[in-house]
Structure formats: structure tokens, C-alpha cells
Amino acid sequence: MRKTHTRCGAGRAFGLVELLVSIAVISVLAALLITAVSRVRMSAQITESTANMRQCFTYSMLYAQENKGVYPAAYSITTAVNTTWLNVLWAYAYPDIDFPGYGRDMEGSIFYTPLIEEGAAARTFGTNTHLSYQYREGLYNLLDDPGNIAYLGDVKTSSGLTTAQINPRNNGQVGLVFLDGHLELREAGDIPSDPADYFWRATRP
């Protein structure tokens, strides 16, 4: 009788190849899933951040309506006390809560962005410092073409929005609210670098 020999080694080898292929497929799928989750998370954070920016502008308008049309200045120095628009609007938006400080200390409020960077110096949003210095009386409602004048935006380490402070933290774009209330996400390269531009100072050459 002829004996049949089984090649057990080949079977084991085939199983190992299958295992390696399965691991490779799972690794690819895991990488794709992580990328997708990261994108969804970024999108959600951008949505939250821009929603907070809109609310900041809404409170700025309400403040102006109750203060003879005067918007809060980016910075205000009186009697040796340095305050910002954040101090002013915080007291207006949260009258029963003491001002917590800047940056990450503002978490949970409309003045916070989940996209804020690490570090004590990091800031969330800033109002247009160039505009504030150009029109110290703060009567922005009288300006022409408000849809092309920046009021509020993402910043790096200051409570004032300037050419040097624009922060493309929204997946490479800068969140901006204009004086007419509309919001845009713009590439940093599409924002005028000249502080004398109408975008910044609302003045024509």
C-alpha cells in the first residue's frame, strides 16, 4: 500500500502569510480610521471655535448698542490699569463671574477656542488693534464697507489682532469676523500684510 505524505510545513507557512497579510490590512484600516477621526475632531473644534467667535461679535454689538455705538477697544489704558476688550465683554457676558484670566483660563466661555495652542502665553481671539488705534472713539458702525473690515480673529499670543498675530489654527486657515458680522476662514497668505490696508484700518489711500 502506498503511503500518502502530508506537507504540514506548507500548511503552517500558508497560515503565517495569511496572518501577516491580515495584520497589514488591519494596520492600513486603523491608519485610515485614525485619520478620519482626526478630521472629524478638527471639524468639530473649528465649528465650536467659529461659533464662539460669532458670539463674541454679537456681544460686541450689544455692548455698542448700550454705549452710544462705541465698540470696546482692543486695549484701554486708564489710571495705570491695562484692560482689553476681553475684560470689558467678560463683565458684560458673565456679570456674576470674575474675570478668570487669559488663554486656557477662559475655557468654557464664549471667549475660548478648543484649538488653542499649548503654553501660558497662548491666546484665543483678538480684536483689530490697527482699527482700534485708527478710530479711538470706537464708532465702527459709521465706517463704509464693513464687510471688508476685520474686527475679530484668531491670534497667537495677544488679545489684539494684528498683521503679526494672525493665527491659521483652523486647519491652516485664520478665523475672521468682519464688521458686518459675517465670518470667513482665510488662508494667512490671503490676508493683507500691510497694516495700512483697508482690511485693517478702514482708510483709503
From TrEMBL:
Keywords: Membrane, Transmembrane, Transmembrane helix. The chain crosses the membrane at residues 12-37. InterPro entries: N_methyl_site, Pilin-like. The keyword RNA-binding does not apply. This is Type II secretion system protein. It comes from Ruficoccus amylovorans.
